[in-house]
Amino acid sequence: MTPTHPCVVGIACFAILGCVTVAQALVTLEVTEGNSTCIKAELSASFSITYDTANGTRTVMVPLPGSAVVGGASSCGGDGRSPWLVALFGDGHTLGLSFSSNNSLYSVSNLTLQYNLSDVTTFPEANSTDVVTVETTSVGMVARVNTTYRCISVSPVIVGGATVTFSNVKMEAYMTGDDLSPNESVCTADQNSTTAPPPPPSTTTAAPVPVPTPPGTPNQGSYSVSNSNGTVCLLARMALQLNISHFSALQNKTIQEVVNLLPNQTTSSGSCDPSSATLVLTQGGTTNLSFLFTLVTSSLYR
Ligand SMILES: *[C@@H]1O[C@H](CO)[C@@H](O)[C@H](O)[C@H]1NC(C)=O
Ligand SMILES: *[C@@H]1O[C@H](CO)[C@@H](O)[C@H](O)[C@H]1NC(C)=O
Ligand SMILES: *[C@@H]1O[C@H](CO)[C@@H](O)[C@H](O)[C@H]1NC(C)=O
Ligand SMILES: *[C@@H]1O[C@H](CO)[C@@H](O)[C@H](O)[C@H]1NC(C)=O
Ligand SMILES: *[C@@H]1O[C@H](CO)[C@@H](O)[C@H](O)[C@H]1NC(C)=O
Ligand SMILES: *[C@@H]1O[C@H](CO)[C@@H](O)[C@H](O)[C@H]1NC(C)=O
Ligand SMILES: *[C@@H]1O[C@H](CO)[C@@H](O)[C@H](O)[C@H]1NC(C)=O
Ligand SMILES: *[C@@H]1O[C@H](CO)[C@@H](O)[C@H](O)[C@H]1NC(C)=O
Ligand SMILES: *[C@@H]1O[C@H](CO)[C@@H](O)[C@H](O)[C@H]1NC(C)=O
Ligand SMILES: *[C@@H]1O[C@H](CO)[C@@H](O)[C@H](O)[C@H]1NC(C)=O
Ligand SMILES: *[C@@H]1O[C@H](CO)[C@@H](O)[C@H](O)[C@H]1NC(C)=O
Ligand SMILES: *[C@@H]1O[C@H](CO)[C@@H](O)[C@H](O)[C@H]1NC(C)=O
């Protein structure tokens, strides 16, 4: 029997609202023209989106589902247009990545997220039915031409009031072959990653389910996020214990686990912009925690 893919669980926590677990699918997206592929991406992504309700704002975590398809305005470019990958998912939501290149490097020149607030399953109690479009040109995905951009690390991109969190990214644009080039441009987060690689999948297939021993009190860790200019823009000191319940397809049941975050095996990353910040904590390649902080402007704090 072939080993199953390790299940990556993303957890998003929002001030006041508590935490949500999101099982992330690895999605493959290809833009083709004629018989040739010009953009191919294998990635996991999730979106944390803050929207208005009658009672105030609410934040939801939306995964890019495995059912996402390439469509819309996707194109290989040419005639002065940029290559554009547009993924469609759910009830009229889209994620678009537009590329640009000079002869040595290519990059994601802009990221567009479109979400449909009429979708009441995803956005309960939204007080608007608009389709909202947010866009950013600071995406930070750059690779050498004829290589695959690789970024296994969790990397958040802030776009308007939303944060797109990518992980397990392998992507190539301006492709010359039929498949991703074996030559890779590895993102800086992966180069500096001190995180131990994820443990190999268990080789025993019918092993009895280990009875989890409850962990003790979690230790406090100190986690920081730096700006592009190296200035620390977010500092968090906390001890974290997670009580996670998720459905295991392998065991065909919902599993409840209590996990302590081990500060010495946890790396932090993230990003800041003038009105919000994201802190991503990664432990052992299988636990990703994203914290989204939004600046609330209030006369109380002036
Ligand atoms: C695509 O491939 C098929 C079969 O290999 C071939 O018949 C067809 O002409 C090709 N089309 C283009 C646009 O290259
Ligand atoms: C919003 O307010 C109404 C009335 O006060 C209440 O019934 C409802 O539960 C509130 N919704 C949320 C999400 O707090
Ligand atoms: C939705 O609610 C927010 C505040 O919660 C308010 O500022 C906004 O005008 C409302 N929008 C609509 C379309 O009612
Ligand atoms: C983003 O890319 C798309 C597709 O290339 C383009 O239509 C749009 O104008 C771009 N937006 C910005 C701000 O560059
Ligand atoms: C937005 O969602 C609503 C309700 O789910 C659906 O009827 C509508 O077609 C969607 N809009 C787009 C642009 O897909
Ligand atoms: C391509 O762009 C990069 C960064 O913008 C620059 O360092 C490099 O010199 C450029 N190469 C060419 C051939 O223009
Ligand atoms: C990329 O590959 C194509 C086709 O193999 C080749 O023509 C081109 O010179 C290569 N570009 C670079 C920068 O290596
Ligand atoms: C990978 O890079 C090496 C050295 O730069 C080059 O010789 C080789 O052709 C490249 N392979 C592909 C598939 O582009
Ligand atoms: C990665 O490490 C290199 C040297 O080890 C350092 O120059 C660089 O600033 C580090 N990058 C990040 C994003 O930490
Ligand atoms: C770094 O950028 C922040 C805003 O992004 C600014 O407040 C700070 O002064 C900058 N620090 C340096 C050393 O340039
Ligand atoms: C999973 O469990 C449910 C009830 O416990 C059972 O009805 C179902 O057939 C099981 N599915 C598989 C694939 O074993
Ligand atoms: C990490 O910390 C735990 C508890 O403080 C300790 O038992 C363990 O040996 C440490 N591991 C490493 C790799 O330092």
List the helices and strands and how they pair.
Blueprint: E1 9-14, E2 18-23, E3 27-33, E4 36-53, E5 56-63, E6 69-70, E7 84-89, E8 93-101, E9 105-116, E10 131-136, E11 142-144, E12 148-151, E13 155-159, E14 162-173, E15 184-186, H1 188-191, E16 220-226, E17 232-239, E18 241-248, E19 253-260, E20 266-273, E21 276-283, E22 287-294
Parallel strand pairs: 1-22, 12-15
Antiparallel strand pairs: 1-2, 3-4, 4-5, 4-14, 6-7, 7-8, 8-9, 9-10, 9-11, 12-14, 13-14, 16-17, 18-19, 20-21, 21-22
This protein binds 2-acetamido-2-deoxy-beta-D-glucopyranose (12 copies).
The site of one 2-acetamido-2-deoxy-beta-D-glucopyranose has 3 residues, from loops.
The low-confidence parts are: 1-9, 13-19, 195-211, 297-302
Distance between the termini: 62 Å
> Residue-averaged pLDDT, rounded?
80
Helical fraction equals under 10%
- The CATH topology of the domain at 24-191 corresponds to Porin
Alpha-beta content class: mainly beta
The coarse overall form would be globular
- Rg from alpha-carbon coordinates: 20 Å
CATH first level of the domain at 24-191: which class?
Mainly Beta
Number of helices: 1
Beta-strand percent range: over 45%
Along the chain, the helix and strand elements come as EEEEEEEEEEEEEEEHEEEEEEE
Main pleated-sheet profile: 7 strands, mixed
Q: How many beta strands in the DSSP annotation?
A: 22
CATH 2nd-level architecture of the domain at 24-191:
Beta Barrel
* Cofactors and ligands: 2-acetamido-2-deoxy-beta-D-glucopyranose
Disulfide bonds: 151-187
InterPro entries: Lamp2-like_luminal (IPR048528), Lysosome-assoc_membr_glycop (IPR002000)
Domain Lysosome-associated membrane glycoprotein 2-like luminal: 28-170, 218-296
Pfam family, one: Lamp2-like_luminal
